[in-house]
Amino acid sequence: MQRGETALQGVLSGLSGLYEDNLFLNNLYEFLDLKPKIQDVTYPKSFPIPVRQGIVVDRVSFQYSNTPRHALHDVSLSIRPKETIALVGENGSGKTTLIKLLCRLYDPTKGNITIDGINIQDFEIADLRQNMSVIFQDYAKYHFSARENIWLGNVQIPLSDSSIESAARRGGAHEVIQHLPNGYDTVLGKLFETGEELSIGQWQKVALARAFLRESQLIVLDEPTSAMDPKAEYEVFQRFKELTKDQMAVIISHRLSTVKMADRIYVMSKGRIIEQGTHTELMALQGDYAHLFETQAQSYR
Length: 301
Ligand SMILES: Nc1ncnc2c1ncn2[C@@H]1O[C@H](COP(=O)(O)OP(=O)(O)OP(=O)(O)O)[C@@H](O)[C@H]1O
Ligand SMILES: [Mg+2]
What we know:
2 domains; 6-stranded mixed sheet
């Protein structure tokens, strides 16, 4: 009797376990069933290598599907080959949204984005993204080794490739990694027992190295250096022009000392571009940019 009872109990708890696990499986299946809203076209055009005329954003408006507000209104800008542009503007002005449209995480509600005159919707998505490297504000921290963290920027090269170390040097991560107990093989983050946690600024250096690893035609840095100390940031941007001399680059930063070196600066406010020009032109204009710059400069004097 007793053995029969235990066996029955075992079966019943097994069944209830199955039921509970099934609840989680439902979530998984729902997730796997999601279809991306952004689809490849049937006959994609090939991405121009190298880009000859540049990227043009033409009167683009955008609205996130879950809100009635427009995140972007009638935004037009251009990036010519080898040019570095900067986006500045208050929080929520639409800078990151514009970058998301550039790499086709969303499609514009109105207007077009073209590269060498070809709408980016006509490229294969993988092909488009292969040609850009982007560090978002909320860049990923992988709990892998330091080497793998950088390698994920371009998984087509072997893990032992020497370009990983040179990318680390360019992003300023080499010194950080060298001082870790196992160098490039140290696991980052505290998820695993042997892992080494980095500071936010040090993580940013690793993310920057990841972006430099890919030989892309466009590099986008969305506040990549916000937590770096002024010396590290100065060093990165001192070399930035040199590092990206053959690439198009977009930098987003609230530190105008960084923005100053861009070939063209676009000032955004509430989803619109309100001023554009070089640092000198914008200072002469005495508008919002000049005011912001003076305010920042003043606090250092
Ligand atoms: N996933 C989303 N869904 C709905 N609305 C969003 C989403 N992401 C951003 N927004 C809205 O879009 C607007 C622009 O946001 P965005 O992130 O582009 O600003 P930002 O200029 O990058 O700001 P910050 O300087 O803080 O990074 C904001 O009003 C925000 O509320
Ligand atoms: Mg942003």
